[in-house]
Design a protein that fits this description.
heterodimer; A: mainly beta; four-stranded antiparallel β-sheet; B: seven-stranded mixed β-sheet; about 50% strand; globular
């Protein structure tokens, strides 16, 4: 089942902060975050595993609430280059290696 | 790291023809994935390999689709008797042995006329 992201879209001024949420109805093993610009492939940002391990870019932070099956991506001091569509991807506990991508959040950063 | 590469980048074919796409993963990555993406949607999982073994395949994948990874290095995705509904971006990704984060290639855009 596809995870649900919120908001669907957000517009920021450069330097502002944003939070993107990802919610699943099933028990998660890990949450992955990607950014995709128009016409390009998704780019890996962060992975958060059940149990607390995580790996990602230094300027990106995220959280994973294992009890609520929710994850949030925190974008601080946004830059024009942050614009794009953000997807979370989820792996289910005991669900093999099928990464299911969320509904997507379109982020636009303006001057 | 040279990244994941895919070939061709664009393919236009007529309905009913067969097409084959190639993916070269990052060299030390033992896991390889194929996805399909249509406009406005997130990538949709098609299949997954660990080394040369195909371990998962989406139930959405019809019998016209087949994938191989013969020596655990590059992979090919073949679509037989293409249909207009097959028009999409086909993405390949690979992941390292530990965290399993996935790195995507640039994709092959397929247009079936």
């Amino acid at each position: 089942q596809q995870p649900v992201q919120s908001p669907q879209a957000v517009i920021l001024r450069e330097g502002e902060d944003a939070v993107i949420n990802c919610s699943s109805s099933k028990a998660l093993y890990s949450v992955h975050w990607y950014r995709q610009k128009h016409g390009e492939a998704p780019v890996f940002l962060m992975i958060l595993l059940k149990g607390g391990e995580q790996k990602g870019h230094d300027k990106i932070s995220a959280s994973f609430n294992e009890k609520k099956q929710q994850s949030s991506l925190y974008l601080t001091a946004s830059q024009l280059s942050y614009s794009g569509t953000y997807f979370c991807g989820t792996l289910l506990t005991g669900g093999g290696n099928k990464l299911t991508f969320g509904t997507g959040t379109q982020l636009k950063v303006e001057l | 790291d040279t990244g994941v590469s895919q070939d061709p980048r664009h393919k236009i074919t007529k309905r009913g023809q067969n097409v084959t796409f190639r993916c070269d993963p990052i060299s030390e990555h033992n896991r390889l994935y194929w996805y399909r993406q249509t406009l406005g949607q997130g990538p949709e999982f098609l299949t997954y390999f660990q080394n040369e073994a195909q371990l998962e395949k989406s139930r959405l994948l019809s019998d016209r689709f087949s994938a191989e990874r013969p020596k655990g290095s590059f992979s090919t995705l073949e679509i037989q008797r293409t249909e207009q509904g097959d028009s999409a971006m086909y993405l390949c990704a690979s992941s390292p042995p530990r965290f399993y984060e996935q790195y995507f290639g640039p994709g092959t855009r397929l247009t079936v006329t």
